[in-house]
């Protein structure tokens, strides 16, 4: 039921998509990235930012015929600092404080059960930070995401 509620929130959020436009300045300060390591393998995606009830920074790509996606959820108005990632279900009372993460690898979805998302920089256009988390799939298999970093449109 928890995953169904979370999926409903995702679908609802996507129905009110508000994506930022591309920055064509070409400077290294405008570089967007979403990087992390799982099982010794490094991943590097160009992030998409979607904002509705929560802010979603997401990277996705098919690698060797396997769909890979990472999703970082945070409040619509993020704050600089260290934030605990939990598997708490979003609701009306926690949307302004909740930080979640999820990793998809093929058919497996790993919901973060613990971790940290550190927002290091915020300005009018971008959010930048680091993250690590441990996730668990529906069969109790765990996975660790390390060396996470991102710079995405706010």
In DSSP terms, counting alpha (H) and pi (I) runs of 4 or more, how many helices?
Answer: 1
SSE succession: HEEEEEEEEEE
Largest sheet: 10 strands, antiparallel
| Mean pLDDT over the residues | 85
Terminal Cα separation, in Å?
Answer: 31 Å
Radius of gyration: 15 Å
Helix content: under 10%
**Shape, please?**
globular
Find the count of extended strands (DSSP E, 2+ residues): 10
Low-confidence blocks of residues: 1-27
Please state the structural category.
Answer: mainly beta
What proportion strand?
Answer: over 45%
Structural notes for this entry:
By secondary structure, the chain is mainly beta. 8% of the residues lie in helices and 53% in strands. The chain has one helix spanning 2-14; strands at residues 33-38, 41-45, 48-51, 55-63, 66-74, 81-85, 100-105, 108-122, 126-136, 142-153. Strands 1, 2, 3, 4, 5, 6, 7, 8, 9 and 10 form a ten-stranded antiparallel beta sheet that branches. It is globular. Residues 1-27 have low confidence and may be disordered.
In short:
The protein has 154 residues and is mainly beta. 8% of the residues lie in helices and 53% in strands. It contains 1 helix and 10 strands.
Q: How are the SSEs placed, and which strands pair?
A:
Layout: H1 2-14, E1 33-38, E2 41-45, E3 48-51, E4 55-63, E5 66-74, E6 81-85, E7 100-105, E8 108-122, E9 126-136, E10 142-153
Antiparallel strand pairs: 1-2, 1-10, 3-4, 4-5, 5-7, 6-8, 7-8, 8-9, 9-10
